[in-house]
Every structure is written in structure tokens, then in C-alpha cells.
Design goal:
With 707 residues, this protein is an alpha+beta fold. The chain has 16 helices and 33 strands. The strands form nine sheets. It has an eight-stranded mixed β-sheet, with no helix packed on it. Strands 19-20-21-23-22 form a five-stranded mixed β-sheet, covered by helices on one side. The chain starts with a strand and ends in a 9-residue tail after the last helix.
Amino acid sequence: MSSRVHFLNVKTHIFMVVALEAPKVVRRADYKPPEYDIESVEIVFSIIDETRVEVSAVLEMKCASSEIDAGARTVTLDAIGIDINSDAFQVNGAETKFEKTETSISFTAPKTKGETFQVSTKHVLDPSENKQLLGLYASPDGDSTTLLTQLEAEGMRRLIPFFDRPDVKPKKWKTTILAEKDKFSTLLATGEKTESKDLENGRHSVTFESDVPMSPYLYAMAAGKFEKKEKTITLPTKGGGEKPVLLEAYVTPEKIHEANFMISILEEVLRWDAEENGLYYPLSVYRMLATRAFNAGAMENLGFNIFNTALSLVNYRLHSDERILNSAHTVEHEGLHTHSGNSATGRTWHEIGCPKEGLNTYRDQKFMEHLIGKYWSRVKRISELKRIQFREDNGASAKAVLLEEYTGDPIHEMYNATRYEKGGEIIRMLEVFFGEIEFKRALQHYFEKFEGKTVTTEELIDAIFEMKPKNCLLDREAFFRWYRQEGTPTCRVEKAYDPETQKLHLTVRQEIKDGQEPLHFPLLMGLIGASGQEIPLKLENSEEGHDLSRGLLYISQKEQVFMFTNVMEDAVPSLLRGFSAPVKLKYEYSYDNLKHLIEHDTDVFNQHQASERLALQCMASLAKSTDDKLQIPDKVLDAYETILQKTEGDDSEADFGIVAEMLKLPDIAIVVQEMKPYDYQKANTARNTLKKAIAARFETQPYILKL
């Protein structure tokens, strides 16, 4: 990297200003398909020790473009930190001249479309000196040293010269690893093991092969001292048959008793995806490695997931429910990437908020609902969305889910709650509009259409809209604004009831940033009467697109008025049921209204939301108070008594989990979002005051959980 140094004399001090070369801006609009494909990859790692690994690679390449004349042209492979000698670079078996920069290797190659040629390279890596922890690195792991790769997003170029981009997907991969058996007893790589043998001088070698198309960032290898748990399961296949799949979990010896959890979650994931979604695992073995040496938390390498032990292993005698749920979430998220991300892969890194992490987050939401219950899972996910993603969207650096450009390494700019959690909620809105069954068919259509291919956000949404139900009038272009516009919209709702005409008016206003167009989103709602019954919904002038049988209102304008008829009594609106859209709901609920929803709402998720709003409104009032002694209204504590009474014989889904969440006060990060101006100290004081009041009110009252 070049730099220029300037000196500025300011008063009596001298400051040195270093003007570094600006990182490259990568624009989505500048995308060009690769002129060459890599058909197959063969890599050999000869591990001498953690300071020296000899790497040789053979790439089978083919000219893919017909827009260039026959003959030869310059090909540039990505390469960083790879020192190749002049006699270690060959094309079709002959030494070939090449030019090397800090980031690439260029050479002359054939360019007739369809013509194939081989590129062979040899070089040496020192994993112990890899401080970026990207590519191949060494890390202490218990009493031994582990060698690991981490290639997302742009790490393959630090391993071997390559076209290090997601839209290059070689169809065949072969890896051979050689190492001292005593020091590196376990050798692992992407693919299925095809050969294992002992060598001279206490060394051994293992070979792995895969014929599933795969982007370079999904490749992995590892070497260390591990023990293995395994289980063979039988999974459905696409043709209606069955096949055995071997599940393997590798961990350091002292953690082997905690590995069964990973296997049990992975088995449930693969079975659920096949039986529920018609998505079948393509390989005959699924390998997992959990190690303290892994720096990235978790990685979805195809058929070979790598985890940090803190995010995957479980000891039921020591770990909390929260730790167990987090580990389950980590394992299932990476397992579900087999299809959403690995098979159908985002064309560039701009796309991670939809085809990769956005879609996969939606899918892991659905799996966790299957695993622990719909409402409890939903409550926990939305609490995190509000705490983290809403704060991102409200900041000065808020950006759209679909980035049109990024600077430098995409991993630093694009991996956040906006791409994951908001991206997942956008996909979920389509499920609400389509209906669960129809949307499942749309997703199956998408996966069949793009299996083994790369895809853009537009192509994913287009594939889903190709299966849109006839009675759903959602506009594709209008919906796509969710990907292009940053920020969290506010959905402000006002109610007016006329007892003479028995009509109830709901006015819905959409508040967005200046210059933005209205977003289209589903508002699931209901009306709860005074006696607690659900009031049937009937609109005076029903507009196309609404589905009142599900309580679905189609919001598409900055302001819409809905007039419900035959409403025999005033009612409390239950709004944004199931969190049907990632918006901030604003409605002037009284404490009595919220207690009524807690007690009678048929949507369990909104019962929780009512308890959260109750706490937030109470804390906001306390924070504004100028009294020396803060008082909690009796109505607030009466509402918490209603929550506690839900444990007495209610058998609803995830009952005790929901009650526990309702009794938890909102995180301080959510509390301060409601304050203008922001005042952490007042918010914290208000939260502690409410917590102490609840404890004082109920500490002597016996509420027995009937487990």
C-alpha cells in the first residue's frame, strides 16, 4: 500500500498526517460476469509444522466469454501474501511467466470460449504469522495447536491464487492433507473422505472429494487433535426414497461429552428441511468441528461447519437455558445455509441481506419456532430486533438492506443486524401476504430454479412473485423499496368509535424519511371487545388485497382510513400481530387497554407486546417525573398480577416461556430509544424503580408454576 506523508505546523506543535491509499469502492452496478470459469480445484497441503505448510494447487479453468476474440489474453487471479517462485507457476504443465502485485497474479492464457487449461501453483504459508486470521492460520487449542481456514468473505486469495468471488462455483473439489500423525491426528476438509493412509516417518494423509458446486468462501480445511462423535441417520431424498447420512462432530478431547448436542440439533434441522420444505441434503456426510481456535464464531462451509466452542457445545449440568438456546440457534443457522446461501448463492457480497443471510435468518426463525414454540421464539427474536437493529436504523450510519456499494472488505461493513434480522423480516412479510402454504411453494420454486447457481436479490424476489397467489395484489416494485430505503418506518394508528352508527375508524399513518416513497407492508390486527371476545372484522368499503379472515390489512399509502362496521361496542385494537412488519407501532394505549390485551388477546405474541408497552409507558412517565419519590400506578401492578395468574392452569403453547418473557422488563437499550432527549441515567432509574415495585408487590404472594 502506498502512502504520502504531510507535515502541518499548527501553533507550536507538529502533526504528522498520513494520507493512506483509499480502500477500493465496490459498486453493484459495476458487476461483470467472470470471463473464465474454474471447473475443478485440487489442493494438497503438506503440513511440516504450524510455521510451514507447503501448498500446491491445480485449477481446471475454462474461458466462459464469447465476447472476446480467439487467441490469448491476460488472466488475473486474486492472491495476497502468496510468494510463488518463477518455477512454481505452470499453465498446461509448462512454466509460464507471470506478474505479481500485492493483491494479484497475472498471466497469459487461452481465450477461446469453451477451451480448458490447467493452472498449477506451489507456495509456502506460515500459519503462525497469519494475524489477520483470514486464510490459513494457527491457534492454540488446549494442549495442542490447530490449523484452520476461514475464507469468508475474501480469504481464498490468502490460501491459493483464485477468482475469489462468490459467482465462481467450481463443480469439483479435491483436497489431500499430509501431516505428522502424532501432532495432527485429525485432518479434515470439504467433501467426503475417499482415501486415508499412513506414510513413512510417522506421517499420514487423508483425501476428500466433493462434486457439489461451491463458491470459494465455503471451502474449509482443518488439522489438529480432536475426538469424534458420530451418528448415522436416514433422511428422505428428492425421489421419495431414503438415504443414510453420517453426522460427525469433532471436538477437543476434554469437550467430547458436550458434542452430542450439536448432532441432535443438526439431525433435527436436516429432517425438518427435507420433510417440511422439500429441501434435501446433497452429500452423504455432514461434518462439524467445534474448537476454541475458531475466530469467526460459526461458519457454514458446505458439509463442514466450523464453530467456536462457546457458541455450539452444551453441558446440560452447567449451562443456562439461554446458552443452550443460543447454541441451538448457531448450529441450526449454519445447517440451514446448505440451501439458502450455499446452493443458491448471492452473486456478489452486496446481496447478503437477501439470498444469503436475510433469507437464511427467516428460515432459522421458522426452525426455532418448530423447535421451541412459535410465540416464545418470536418474542425473543423481536426483542433482539428492537434492541439492536432499530438502533442501527435510527443512527446516522443507517443503510439499506441492499447495498449498492461497499468499501474494502465486505465483512466489516455488511455483516450486521440490518442484513440479518431486518432482511429476515422482509422475507417474512411475503409469507404474511401470501399465506404460509402458498409462500412455502414459492420458496420451493426459488430453490429449484437457482439450485447450484448464483442469484441477485431481484432474481430471488422475482422467483417468489412468479408464485404469487391470484388474490394477493401486492406490487413487486413497491415492495422492493424495503431493500432500497434505509430506516425503520413508524406506523401511527388512531381509533375513533361511534356508538350510534356502530362504526370504528382506524387511521393508519406511515411516517418515513423525507424523500422516501411509502412502503407496502401487512398489518395483522384484531378488535377485542369489552368482555374479551374477538369482534368479527367487516370493512364498509373493502379494498382489494385485504384478507379480513386473517385480520390482514394492506398498507400501501402514507395515510389510510379503515371503517369497520357492525362493531356493537367499543373495542381495543390488537395491532401488528405476530410483528407482521418491521415497523415502530405508535398507538395511545391506556394502562387499562394494555391490561385488557394481556388478559384477552388471542394473539399470544401481542399479549407479550402489551406487557412490554405497559412497562415502557410506565418507565417513560417515571423518567419525566420531577417528584423526589417515584410512584408506580396501581393499574400497572394490577396488570402484572394478570400476567402471574396466567401460570395457574393455562396450557397454551410455550405458556411458561411467554410468561417469563412478559415478566422481564424491556432492555435498557429499548427504553432509551423511546426518550427524547436520550438520558440513560433517568431510564435506568425508572427501570430499577419499576423492577423493585413489582418485587415488593408480589414477594409474599404464592404463584405456583404448574409444571
